[in-house]
């Protein structure tokens, strides 16, 4: 889905926790309609915040990613978690329709 980088349990530490920039992680699944609706929003935000914040995705329907899903207590999707210096800075859960882009931009700006 889209042009955002995929992160797995094997690459999560290096690409997210050890990143020199803040990273917004999208926990999603292929069957999730709101997750699919979120993708264009995230791709636009990735362009807007290029070089300042990385945006990546984790497909929670892959059995190999169960450890990440459990580690971060993902119960509903889409769930977006913003990490900075290896620490969780905040979460955004769900897709809020046409206002999602502005809300997420504000969320990223507040926490990054």
Quickly list its features:
single chain, about 110 residues, alpha/beta, Glutaredoxin, five-stranded mixed β-sheet, about 25% strand, globular
Structure summary, number of beta strands: 5
Number of domains: 1
Overall, the morphology is globular
The ordered string of helix (H) and strand (E) elements is EHEHEHEEH
Number of helices: 4
- Poorly predicted regions are none
Mean pLDDT comes to: 93
The amount of helix comes to 25-40%
Beta-strand proportion? 15-25%
CATH superfamily: Glutaredoxin
User: Which strand order spans the largest sheet, edge to edge or round the barrel?
Assistant: 1-3-2-4-5
Describe this structure in words.
The chain is built from 4 helices and 5 strands; from the N terminus they run βαβαβαββα. It has 112 residues and is an alpha/beta fold. It has a single domain (5-111), classed as 3-Layer(aba) Sandwich (Glutaredoxin), CATH 3.40.30. It has a 5-stranded mixed sheet. Helix 2 (33-48) packs across helix 4. The model has no long low-confidence stretch (mean pLDDT 93).
């Amino acid at each position: 889905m889209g042009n955002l980088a995929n992160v797995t349990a094997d690459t999560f530490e290096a690409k997210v926790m050890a990143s020199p920039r803040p990273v917004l992680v999208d926990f999603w699944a292929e069957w999730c309609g709101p997750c699919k609706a979120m993708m264009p929003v995230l791709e636009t935000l990735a362009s807007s915040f290029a070089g300042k914040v990385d945006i990546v995705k984790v497909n929670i329907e892959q059995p190999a990613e169960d450890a990440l899903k459990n580690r971060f207590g993902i119960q509903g999707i889409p769930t977006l978690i913003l990490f900075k210096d290896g620490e969780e800075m905040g979460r955004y859960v769900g897709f809020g329709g046409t206002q999602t882009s502005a809300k997420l931009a504000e969320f990223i700006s507040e926490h990054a």
